[in-house]
């Protein structure tokens, strides 16, 4: 019993006496609070600026004007500034399809360029068909709910006005039914919230699992070879940088082989998409060449960046137990987009989303989420997301090169060091050496 108690004390002291344990005491509850509250706070975040919109009223019964007036009740937090600014109300001839198409094309370009937040298309005979379409790059739950309520109230009032005095309960329920507001992206492409959300999560998780899974394999390989002293034999015939690069690239090729198999399966599905009855929303994601190209770039860059960090961790620690303290921040950086996905899907062009997606350690997963939610069909630098996604590739590539250089400097010394883990000042000395 005495001997077992000695082991208990040793294992306990080995963990709680480390600075990382004290840091974890603070970081863990903060992380739990952030995971619980941050997504909800961001999802409910109200716009701080007036949103501009236009209306195409093809019913020509003054519904557009009534809708504009009904939006005047919504004000920003200052209680004075209106939440919405209706720039134009268009009343084209609904039978002139070419004129309507040209008008929508013009408004689409304004939405893509950020000069217009959204526009509504009120269809002909809307009192009977309830057809109203909202076109935007992203869809806010708060805005959509407001628009649906105001339109529903307007149409219900007009139906009641057109009815006779003696009406049944069923008739009242019929005329006061709610409008089902349909969502479209610029260009007329239908957008389904669940498909956008799940599509973004799936591609983010592919990057996450690839980088985290193969990165940890690389880290454990370095730790095992270091502890078994095989590393000393290896560096006698190969330089530390060549060893590190070989491990990173070798495992990277294995991960890309896995992804290539997935894409081969996707190509087979694409050839049979008509017979498989794959919905347009899903095919618009998995068969979108622009999205897939950016995804491949970010998959490769994300793997190189994070696997190099895992190699760095493996070179300075002596066991998996020590390594866990360093894995936590890397994991959080990759999973951040999932935590705030509800906010990003509503405001992918917000300052918060843009800034976070241009921080290289967040870029691979955050930018893929934004590209998916905005929906890009044409490669054009006039589209802000294309420019930002390309800039993100450049920034991430430069950061990856810097991380590789720093890791190589530490790796060459760390793989031959045993016992006490090096401190930050010692790591800085290794880099300068």
The main sheet comes to: 6 strands, mixed
* Residue share in helix: 55-70%
* Number of E-state strands: 6
Number of helices: 19
Distance between the amino and carboxyl termini: 49 Å
Q: What is Rg?
A: 28 Å
Strand content: 5-15%
Order of strands in the sheet with the most strands?
2-1-3-4-5-6
Shape: elongated
Tally of distinct domains: 3
Give the H and E element order. HHEHEHEHEHHEEHHHHHHHHHHHH
* Rounded average pLDDT: 76
Helix-strand category: alpha/beta
Describe what you observe in this structure.
The chain folds into 3 domains: 2-43, no CATH class; 51-190, abc type-2 transporter like fold (3-Layer(aba) Sandwich), CATH 3.40.1710; 193-432, no CATH class. The radius of gyration is 28 Å and the shape is elongated. Strands 2-1-3-4-5-6 form a 6-stranded mixed sheet. Helix 3 packs across helix 6 (141-162). By secondary structure, it is an alpha/beta fold. The model has no long low-confidence stretch (mean pLDDT 76). 68% of the residues lie in helices and 8% in strands.
């Amino acid at each position: 019993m005495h001997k077992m108690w000695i082991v208990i004390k040793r294992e306990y002291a080995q963990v709680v006496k480390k600075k990382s344990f004290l840091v974890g005491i603070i970081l863990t509850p903060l992380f739990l609070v952030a995971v619980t509250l941050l997504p909800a706070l961001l999802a409910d975040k109200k716009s701080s600026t007036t949103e501009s919109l236009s209306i195409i009223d093809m019913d020509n019964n003054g519904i557009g004007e009534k809708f504009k007036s009904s939006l005047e009740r919504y004000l920003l937090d200052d209680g004075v500034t209106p939440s919405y600014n209706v720039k134009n109300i268009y009343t084209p001839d609904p039978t002139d399809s070419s004129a309507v198409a040209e008008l929508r094309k013009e408004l689409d370009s304004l939405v893509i360029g950020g000069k217009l937040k959204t526009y509504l298309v009120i269809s002909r005979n809307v009192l009977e068909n309830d057809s109203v379409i909202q076109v935007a790059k992203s869809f806010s739950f708060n805005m959509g709910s407001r628009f649906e309520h105001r339109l529903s109230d307007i149409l219900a009032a007009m139906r009641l006005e057109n009815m006779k005095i003696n009406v049944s309960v069923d008739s009242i329920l019929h005329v006061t039914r709610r409008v089902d507001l349909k969502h479209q992206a610029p260009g007329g492409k239908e957008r389904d919230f669940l498909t956008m959300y799940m599509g973004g999560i799936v591609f983010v998780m592919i990057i996450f699992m690839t980088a985290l899974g193969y990165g940890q394999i690389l880290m454990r390989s370095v730790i095992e070879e270091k502890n078994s002293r095989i590393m000393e034999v290896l560096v006698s015939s190969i330089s530390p940088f060549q060893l590190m690069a070989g491990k990173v690239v070798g495992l990277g090729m294995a991960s890309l082989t896995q992804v290539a198999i997935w894409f081969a399966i996707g190509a087979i599905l694409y050839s049979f998409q008509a017979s498989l009855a794959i919905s347009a929303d899903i095919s618009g994601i998995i068969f979108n060449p622009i999205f897939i190209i950016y995804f491949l770039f970010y998959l490769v860059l994300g793997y190189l960046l994070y696997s190099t960090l895992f190699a760095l961790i493996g070179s300075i620690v002596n066991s998996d137990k020590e390594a866990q303290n360093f894995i936590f921040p890397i994991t959080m950086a990759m999973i951040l987009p999932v935590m705030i996905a509800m906010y990003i899907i509503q405001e992918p062009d917000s300052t918060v989303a843009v800034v976070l997606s241009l921080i290289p350690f967040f870029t691979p997963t955050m930018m893929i989420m934004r590209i998916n939610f905005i929906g890009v069909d044409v490669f054009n630098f006039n589209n802000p997301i294309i420019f930002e996604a390309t800039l993100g590739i450049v920034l991430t590539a430069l950061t990856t090169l810097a991380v590789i250089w720093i890791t190589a400097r530490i790796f060459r010394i760390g793989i031959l060091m045993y016992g006490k883990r090096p401190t930050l000042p010692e790591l800085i000395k290794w880099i300068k050496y």
